Amino acid sequence: MNMRLLVGVAAVALSAASGALAQSATSGWYVAADVGYHDPSGVKTTTTNNLDWTFSGDHDWTGFGRFGYKFSPNFRLEAEYGYRPGDLKSVLSPTANAAQPIGLCAPGVTRSAASPACGKPNGSLKAQTAMANAIFDIAPNSSLNPFIGGGVGVAWVQNKAYGQLSGLPATGGFAPYQNTNFNDTDQAMALQAIAGVAWNFADNWSLDLTGRYLRTSKLNWGSVTQNAGPGVGNIYDVGYASGRYKDASVTLGLRYTFGSAPPPPPPAPAYEAREFVVYFPFDQYILTPEAQAVVQQAADYAKGGNASKIVVVGHTDTSGSDKYNQKLSERRAKAVADGLVSLGVPATTLSVDWKGEKDLAVPTKDGVKEPLNRRSTVSITF
Predict the structure, then answer these.
(1) 262-305 pLDDT, tens per residue?
(2) CA triple 9-12-14, angle to 5 deg
(3) Phi, psi of 194 (to 5 degrees)
């Protein structure tokens, strides 16, 4: 499995799981472990003797352990330990026509016109890191939560390179070959950029797909060169090699946040058919402050439940002529309907009717001034 395959498998898994939604704790301590692949960039160095050599490491597995605290749904801080091993692929100058030696070959091999191949040096390039990371969760309440962040810390990079100096002249007292050995570990400040996506697949549990890019400040590795051929000869001293370690990695990690998950949101209120009653003073159709408050309640209820039909009906008491009261009830109904529309109720859901002295709330004789009959009703259905 290589890094591209790992990313592809993880992306498919997270996409397939996007329908699920679990609660993630809003705050609390958490622990996590990640494993994946990393691909180091060639470490471009300059040696004491002004040789420009690039130490190229092979991509390999990588692992991380994390311990952190989630301060809010969006923000967390963590301490991270990382281990990035890898075999050495080559030690070679990027300029082919540079002055010899331009790199390291397989150690202890006497080359000749019949067998001129340089071969691969032995060794490894390993890095250990201790980082403090700050992470921002973009959508913590979603099943798939992208996140970004960065870290600062220390890197310990071990350079173990053992190989034969290339292209030493046969004259000048040099032996047939000389082997140079780097076996040194140096530490330097490190920075990293972080981006990824988390799948909150169960309460307090997350699966993290994380990409990291690490860069260190300058590292120095010392070397020892030995005359491995017959005779004393001269020794070509490579000295120290100085360069920066850079690495990109992709991992899958399991994270558990201690503490209880936030309570689920309250259920949406159940909306049922309901009637509101708006009362008017004697012989008036203007909405009083009390009447306006009832109209506001009716509008909020209708909009909250997305009402499908609202019927406003105007009424009067029995005081006055039937013809006059019929017109007064119409004005009361329209005043309430206009008030509902002004508060955002769609006019398409409204129908208006008026009954005059009919359908009394409190049955009375003709000519009786009954306050409970001076009204408009607002009937709401969903």
Answers:
(1) 677 787 778 899 999 999 999 999 999 999 999 999 999 999 99
(2) 105
(3) -130, 135
CA proximity to 54, closest of 83, 96, 12, 10: 96
Question: Looking up tokens 């409190």, which residue turns up?
Answer: 362
Q: Is 355:313 a contact under the CB 8 Å cutoff?
A: yes
Cβ-based neighbour number of residue 344 at 10 Å: 10
Residue 2 is which amino acid?
N
Cβ within 8 Å of residue 15, ≥6 positions away: none
* Cα 158–chain centre separation: 32
pLDDT at residue 228, rounded to an integer: 58
Nearest CA among 240, 252, 245 for reference residue 85: 245
Cβ atoms of residues 200 and 24 within 8 Å: yes
Tokens standing for 225? Answer: 């060169």
Give Cα separations from 304 to 114, 297, 298, 300, 308 (angstroms).
Answer: 90, 10, 10, 6, 11
**Tens of pLDDT along 166-212?**
887 655 555 567 889 999 999 999 999 999 999 999 989 999 999 99
How many CA atoms lie within 13 Å of 182's alpha carbon, on the beta-carbon side?
32
3-state secondary structure 215-252: EECCEEECEEEEECCCCCCECCCCCCEEECCEEEEEEE
In the sheet that holds 350-354, the strands lie side by side as: 274-279, 375-381, 309-314, 350-354
Q: Show the CA angle centred on residue 86, arms to residues 80 and 87, nearest 5°.
A: 165
